[in-house]
Write a structure and sequence with these properties.
The complex is a heterotrimer. Chain A is α/β, with parallel strands linked by helices. Chain A has three domains: 2-93 and 141-175, NADH:ubiquinone oxidoreductase-like, 20kDa subunit (Rossmann fold, 3-Layer(aba) Sandwich), CATH 3.40.50; 99-139, no CATH class; 192-306, no CATH class. Chain A has helices spanning 9-15, 19-27, 41-46, 64-76, 85-89, 101-111, 163-175, 244-247, 265-275, 282-290, 295-299, and strands spanning 2-3, 52-58, 61-63, 77-83, 126-129, 132-135, 139-144, 154-156, 314-315. In chain A, strands 1-2-4-8 form a four-stranded parallel sheet, with helices on both faces. By secondary structure, chain B is of the alpha/beta class. Chain B has five domains: 7-136, Rossmann fold (3-Layer(aba) Sandwich); 139-238 and 314-329 and 494-567, 3-Layer(bba) Sandwich (FAD/NAD(P)-binding domain); 240-311, no CATH class; 332-492, 3-Layer(bba) Sandwich (FAD/NAD(P)-binding domain), CATH 3.50.50; 569-631, Alpha-Beta Plaits (2-Layer Sandwich). In chain B, a hairpin with a 2-residue loop joins strand 30 (595-600) and strand 31. The longest helix of chain B is centred in the C-terminal third of the chain and has 21 residues, at 543-563. In chain B, 52% of the residues are buried. Chain C is an alpha/beta fold. Chain C has a single domain (9-130), classed as Rossmann fold. Chain C has helices at residues 18-27, 49-57, 78-93, 113-130, and strands spanning 9-14, 36-41, 62-67, 103-107, 133-134. Chain C has a four-stranded parallel sheet, sandwiched between helices. In chain C, helix 1 packs across helix 4. The chains are: A alpha/beta, B alpha/beta, C alpha/beta. Chains in contact: A-B, A-C, B-C. At the B-C interface, helix 5, helix 6, helix 17 and helix 18 of B face helix 1, strand 2, helix 2 and helix 3 of C. Strand 9 (314-315) of chain A pairs antiparallel with strand 5 (133-134) of chain C, so a sheet runs across the interface.
Chain lengths: 318, 652, 141
């Protein structure tokens, strides 16, 4: 298991397996897991190609080192699994693709309010320390899902995947009865509404008059959150998490990503939300949408890296 | 499709229409380089017999199973090429056309090079889509040549009779114990000496006696399943308790202990629980009102013919029809208690009550007697309940009240030459061929017209009734003492629409009436096929207009029944149940009510009724999971077309 | 080798109104720039925002979505849904660095061939001025 540009949540998710971890370690040999075990890159390089049964990579490809490790592990593994939203679709960190890397560096090292950088230091690829040349991995122009740099066999969705989803994925791997290559495993084939206890409370016509943000509503736990004006992305999000967030009265933010037939999660969820806004003229629509301060961040929160555009486009004025 | 797609491309010259601008040879050469294209050809006129034969030959000889024709607009010849493919044994829907005449050669004749390049782009896009096309089958639905008509007023009667005379079976459902609707409650009709019930007598007789019409009185439509061509309607008939043995001797009326307000006289008179609705009511038998009847049995004792059966039970009727005509009418606007003094005095009446007073068969035998006296000063206040004159009023104009009021003013003047009549109006709308003369007559007969901008007040106190109005023409405030106020109330949507709409999937306009498919081009049809609207159920109408609408729906329904079958285009929406989560987003998207949310175990799933789906695709674009797709316009097919806009293949 | 920039504009046309208007422009022999690649759907309500992003991704410099006027949709109110979706999508373009003028929504009825010609010339000129749109395809070389 390897982590690229990730928050560590996916590693924790594995720990969430609790006793099932012990069962797992009985069934398999873990040959590489930097967060938990002390293997080094050389240990992986020494393994024969294709000898790792399965490799789970979480986190997206942000720096050259990630790409290098992903390519290495691909060579050494039979089955490559993109584990978690970041490796599958870029995840939250891929929202950085809305900015040029220079803007990111400038923001972090020069502009943030909590800055303490009197010498105006910014990260460099190469630096000399005591006569030695040191190299840091370079920042790539954007954060990519891992399937943009290597061939991926399966995807486990979630931010992070729940313990049950993780266990389902692992057991289906170990059973040998695998779905077609490229499938999402461990989760449902249809959207979250199927697992949501509030699905039955929907009226005949699902239409919303107003868009509200979570801090503006104390949700009634007995009614579908969409009907209360909250932007629950459940209808467009793959099920599998048993509607954890909704059961805690928070609208689904889409961390289990798109269903199989959807090519751009952000566009599709924006489509369904817009479709059910019960207004018929441009002015009223503009006013309603004003209540949504960051549509791209809202609809592409976990999936910008895998979206059709991938991030900000560059205009050539030639 | 398991077979490999083999595309045949055919580029038409259309004489010089296309070839004069576009380099057809170059386009054909280019087509041959595209993936899955087995062969590409050109011909002078693809729509001609030899052109079509070219397609058939390629299918036969090269096993072509997808056809791309680059020619004129599909609006011209899509059916031609579909037929050619069917002749060749290929499914008609494996065709993709490229419009290179109307949308390329004819509009870019000054830029031949770019026109040719654009043609190549469009061709590449069409081939990309054609590769993903799938065979589709048209759905054919058998047509039940019978109609349900809900509502036995003028519109419903006219529709029923027209259909019956054309030879179709009609099931006419009426909630009251008699047909005739509101028109039979009208006093003298305009420009006629006949009352509403006299005017309608012939049509009431014809409907009652026509062998093709079955009338269900005291009945209500409680369920409607199915769709155009095959509806299953459940109609419940509540007991009348009196059968055809009744001779109208009225002994039962004499002994009945229960007296209630008579709704046919709009509360101006009383009736017993057993009653004949009005003098000319059809059928010619009594009815018992189950809400007020105490079941005491006194009437049974005196009924010689034995026509009363208090044990009669409700009956359920299951009817199978091909079309449904909704003609359930309107309700008179009921002013809230106190508006214009309504309710404070018997001398403040509505226009509908006035009609009863002036009807020779009404509670006062046609004499304008109110509270025992004949009023000398009569004020008509117009636009009550319409044009936003009060907070409770509708914003729309109710269309019929001006002509109705003027007609009544003229009638009153004829009966009482000495009466002073005030017409206090916001606007006088006597439109069309017939009604302006009413206005002229009223003015000639010295009805006093007072125009208001601010809604008048009516003060009904112990000293009598005073109407306070600011005359907008004179710019002066007037206080007019009167002894009768007639409120010209408008037409409200019927309160039964709520329950009707829970049975029949039809939409409502913002005003509350049923909403037609298009107010100008399709005024008597619901958006859903097979359902029609006749009369004031879809907006205020007078008797003439309701009658017209009745005939119109009969014509529409006849056209449907005469076909014998209903063809459904196969490019309909379809949901893959395993991918559907029952999220219900699609249901609200469909204006035809074609999508239902069904229960599968304890889960919910969407279900498309192909007979109702019109293939717009709105639900497909809204479906958050891609479970809903449109045959022939699937996401994969359209995305393939889009990806092909450039020669680079950037598939994601 | 350097040719002047000619924008590629993907146009979604509804079958009943806009496509018919395009045909009418043809039969009337009107002239308009050949920059538009038309994709026909039965109703503008079929146009999925995914298509719009896919079009920009694949080389479209502009996208025109056209359908029947509000109130005149052949399918009653498919275009109302189109209006809702395009209004929201247009708000999302700025974050992606796409000028909102590159996405245009027009109501063009079957008789309004002249309106289309006017819109077409305007849009081509506008997008020429904005320049080509070229999405980053591969972040890494």
């Amino acid at each position: 298991m390897y982590w690229c540009a990730s928050c560590g949540g996916c590693e924790e998710a594995t720990v969430d397996l609790a006793e099932r971890v012990l069962e797992l370690t009985n069934l398999v040999d873990i040959v590489f897991w930097p967060v938990a075990l002390d293997f080094k890159q050389e240990d992986v390089e020494k393994l024969p190609d294709g000898s790792i049964t399965a490799c789970l990579i979480n986190g997206g490809i942000r720096v050259t080192e990630h790409r290098h490790m992903a390519e290495l592990l691909r060579r050494k593994s039979k089955i490559m699994i993109a584990y978690g939203a970041c490796s599958a679709w870029g995840g939250v960190p891929s929202l950085a693709n809305l900015y040029e890397t220079q803007e990111l560096i400038s923001r972090v090292y020069r502009e943030v309010p909590s800055l303490n950088n009197p010498d105006n230091v910014t990260p460099q690829h190469r630096v000399e320390v005591d006569g030695n040349q040191l190299e840091l991995p370079e920042l790539l122009p954007s954060l990519l899902p891992i399937d943009r740099v290597i061939d991926v066999d399966y995807y486990v969705p979630g931010c992070p995947p729940t313990a049950d989803v993780t266990w389902n994925a692992i057991t289906s791997l170990l059973s040998g009865k695998l779905p077609p290559k490229g499938s999402v495993i461990g989760a449902a084939d249809n959207a979250l509404c199927d697992q949501c206890p509030l699905n039955d409370t929907k009226p005949d016509k699902l239409l919303i008059k107003d868009l509200k943000r979570p801090h503006q509503v104390i949700p009634d736990p007995t009614k579908c959150l969409l009907t209360q004006g909250l932007l629950c992305l459940g209808p467009g999000t793959r099920g599998g998490c048993e509607a954890l967030c909704v059961r805690a009265r928070m609208p689904c933010t889409g961390c289990f990503g798109p269903l199989d037939r959807v090519t751009d999660y952000g566009a599709k969820t924006a489509s369904f939300i817009a479709s059910i806004i019960d207004l018929r003229n441009e002015e009223a629509l503009e006013d309603a949408i004003d209540k949504l301060p960051d549509p791209v961040g809202t609809f592409y929160r976990y999936t910008l890296g895998a979206s059709s555009l991938g991030g900000r486009v560059r205009n050539d004025k030639s | 499709m398991s077979e490999e797609p083999k595309v045949g491309v055919f580029v038409c010259h259309c004489g010089m229409n296309i070839a004069g601008t576009i380099n057809v040879k170059e386009v054909v050469e280019y087509a041959r380089t595209l993936p899955h294209v087995v062969d590409a050809n050109e011909y002078v006129f693809m729509c001609s017999a030899p052109g079509q034969d070219l397609i058939k030959d390629e299918v036969k000889n090269l096993g072509i199973n997808r056809v791309v024709v680059a020619a004129c607009s599909p609006a011209m010849h899509e059916p031609t090429f579909r037929a050619a493919m069917a002749d060749a044994g290929l499914n008609r829907y494996l065709l993709e056309m490229v419009n290179i005449r109307e949308q390329s050669a004819w509009v870019h004749s000054h830029e031949k090079r770019r026109a040719t390049e654009k043609t190549k782009d469009l061709l590449r896009m069409a081939v990309a889509k054609a590769v993903l096309l799938e065979p589709l089958e048209e759905l054919r639905i058998g047509m039940q040549p019978a109609s349900l008509v809900v509502g036995g007023g003028v519109a419903g009667l006219r529709a029923s009779l027209d259909l019956a005379q054309r030879g179709f079976k009609v099931h006419l459902v009426e909630k009251l114990p008699t047909t005739g609707g509101r028109a039979v409650g009208l006093g003298t009709m305009a420009r006629s000496e006949m009352s509403g019930s006299e005017l309608l007598r012939p049509i009431l007789d014809q409907v009652e006696s026509h062998t093709n019409i079955v009338t269900y009185l005291n009945s209500e439509l409680v369920n409607l399943d199915g769709s155009v061509g095959y509806f299953k309607a459940k109609v419940v008939t509540y007991p009348r308790f009196v059968n055809a043995k009744c001779t109208l001797c009225e002994e039962c009326v004499r002994v009945c202990p229960v007296e209630v307000a008579n709704e046919y006289d709009y509360g101006l008179s009383k009736r017993k629980a057993i009653y004949l609705p009005f003098k000319d009511a059809r059928p010619r038998i009594m009815a018992i009102d189950p809400h007020s009847c105490t079941m005491c049995g006194e009437c049974v004792k005196v009924c010689e013919p034995g026509a009363i059966d208090l044990a009669e039970e409700s009956r359920e009727n299951e009817l199978v029809v091909g079309g449904v005509i909704l003609a359930s009418g309107f309700e008179p606007y009921e002013p809230p208690f106190g508006d214009f003094g309504f309710g404070y005095s018997e001398k403040i009446v509505t226009l509908f009550q006035l009609e009863r007073l002036l009807d020779a068969n009404g509670p006062t035998k046609g004499q304008l007697v109110v509270s025992g006296t004949v009023p000398k000063n009569i004020a008509f206040i117009m636009c009550v309940g319409s044009l936003g004159t009060t907070e409770n009023a509708h914003q729309y104009c109710s269309r019929t009240c001006c002509a109705s009021s003027l007609k009544n003013m003229i009638r009153i003047r004829a009966l009482y030459p000495d009466a002073t009549i005030y017409a206090i109006y916001k606007d006088i709308r006597t439109y069309g061929r017939h009604d302006e003369t009413l206005y002229e007559q009223a003015t000639e007969q010295r009805v006093k017209f007072i125009n208001f901008e601010n809604t008048p007040n009516v003060n009904a106190g112990a000293n009598g009734i005073t109407v306070h109005v600011r005359d907008a023409t004179l710019q002066a405030s007037l206080a007019i003492p009167v002894d009768l106020v007639v409120l010209a109330v408008g037409m409200s949507p019927s309160s039964t629409l709520r329950s009707l709409r829970s049975v029949v999937k039809v939409g409502c306009s913002p005003e509350g009436f049923l909403r037609e498919a298009h107010p100008k081009l399709r005024p008597v049809e619901a958006p859903a096929d097979g359902i029609f609207f006749a009369g004031s159920v879809s907006g205020p109408k007078n008797v003439i207009e309701s009658s017209m609408a009745g005939s119109a729906t009969a014509a529409k329904a006849s056209a449907l029944f005469a076909k014998g079958e209903f063809h459904v285009e196969p490019i309909t929406a379809q949901v893959t149940e395993e991918l559907c989560s029952g999220c219900a987003v699609c249901i609200a998207m469909c204006p035809y009510g074609a999508i239902a949310r069904k229960s599968v175990g304890d889960k919910k799933r969407a279900e498309v009724d192909r007979a109702l789906c019109k293939a717009c695709g709105a639900c497909v674009a809204a479906c958050p999971s891609g479970a809903m797709q449109q045959a022939g316009f699937k996401d994969t097919q359209l995305l393939a077309q889009i990806v092909a806009i450039s020669e680079r293949r950037n598939v994601r | 080798m350097s040719e002047p920039f000619e924008p590629k504009i993907v146009m979604f046309a509804c079958n009943w109104c806009t496509y018919a208007a395009l045909d009418l422009a043809g039969t009337s022999r009107m002239k308009y720039p050949p920059n538009f690649l038309v994709i026909k759907t039965m109703c503008s309500g079929r146009v999925d925002p995914q298509f719009i992003f896919q079009a920009f991704r694949n080389g479209a410099d502009g996208v025109l979505v056209a359908g029947c006027h509000l109130g005149d949709c052949h399918y009653i109110e498919g275009n109302v849904k189109t209006l809702r979706r395009i209004t929201l999508v247009r708000r999302m373009l700025d974050a992606f660095g796409i000028e909102p003028e590159r996405l245009r929504l027009e109501w063009i009825s079957a008789s309004e061939a002249d309106k289309f010609v006017k819109v077409a010339s305007e849009m081509v000129a506008q997008i020429k001025a904005l320049g080509p749109l070229s999405p980053k395809l591969e972040a890494n070389a």
